[in-house]
Amino acid sequence: MRYRATALAGLLAAGLVAGLTGCAPSTTPAQNDGADKQTGALRVWLFDEPNRAPKEKVVNDAVAEFKAAHKDVTVEVTYIAVNTRSERFKGAFNDPSSAPDMVEFGNTDLPEYVAAGGLAEVGKDAEGLDLGADLKNSATIDGKLYGVPWYVGVRALYYRTDVFTELSLTPPTSQAELVAAAKQIRAKKPELFGLAVGGKYTFGALPFVWDAGGDLATKSATGYTATINSPQSRAGVKAYTDLIKADNCPPQQCADLTGGKTVELFASGKAGMAILGNFNRAAVEAGAAKGKYAVVPLPGTKPGSVAPAFAGGNNLGVMKSTQRRTLAAEFMKLLASKKYQEQMYTAMGNLPTLTSARTELAGKEPFLKPFMDTIAAGTKFVPLHPGWGKIDAQAVVPTMLEKIVTGKATVEQATDEAATAMNAAFK
Hints:
Belongs to the bacterial solute-binding protein 1 family. The chain is α/β, with parallel strands linked by helices and 427 residues long.
């Protein structure tokens, strides 16, 4: 799920989207009786938004199109609050009579909902959709697709064009250049952070881990095992936490920075660079940095490379208990179509998951190019295991980062502690 104030939680604006995770219930939902009704009321749950009107207009257009093609069918759309979605889904899993037929859900919620038995497989329904492999994998568990990615959010490097011009800097194309530029900005303009980075910004740190060849965990035939304490992961953690120092972003001010606070810092003109999402554009445009920034992919260690980004976002899916399986799948496909993904981008700024839709939008909107390039270079995801919800809720990764930058633990000690906590959640 994208960590943003509207849906990922603030993973997803902290990231992610909106920042966005929730704990799904561990329960056994009642199953349908095999019925597949072709008439009646199709019940749909979508996430509410602070400003629902633009989203609602697009959805209403899709509903009108769907009803025109399906006689004797009505579509009842309910907008549910993101922060109470866990309880709503728990109730739906336990009581099919109150459950929707088609749903929107955060992609980080998927493992828990699948473990609870609440979602239907939709692999055959998604055939023909031009979804990239990385996005499909983020909705796939044990080889089965349980959702259609509806929109995606990735992060890239925002930088102040006026500051770069003043200091004769060029956009960094390697991690070494990134670090050098950050330190130069801090040295020449001490009122600014060079690169705003935070001890509580999980999705700002993970690209450094992934670029170094590390990962949160690896999957085997017996399940997930934490690898955040591998040599490669430790190298990435060190590269990130080394930025939270006096010569860039002092720990006294940056140790507790979340993704959301990082957005605020850059938008208010207090940082020369920041790792932000395509979904943070509106916030930056509303601040002092408006008109004085540009975006490039976050560079990796190898010159010219792109550091892998977390692919947050939301999916559309079909409830396993639905009495209208065919109708639910058809409405899901309609909302996920190129036509409505493009309309959702125009209305909400949601980056489409369909390659064709993104390509078309990129031709019209240059701002999207660095995010497209980031997706094309390959994205990553969190472990597709129900335990991830617990790991996220316990703030395992932020705690690890914060201990390192405040000197409470070494990289080795903190990563070992994090690995122990992760493995406990994976059991």
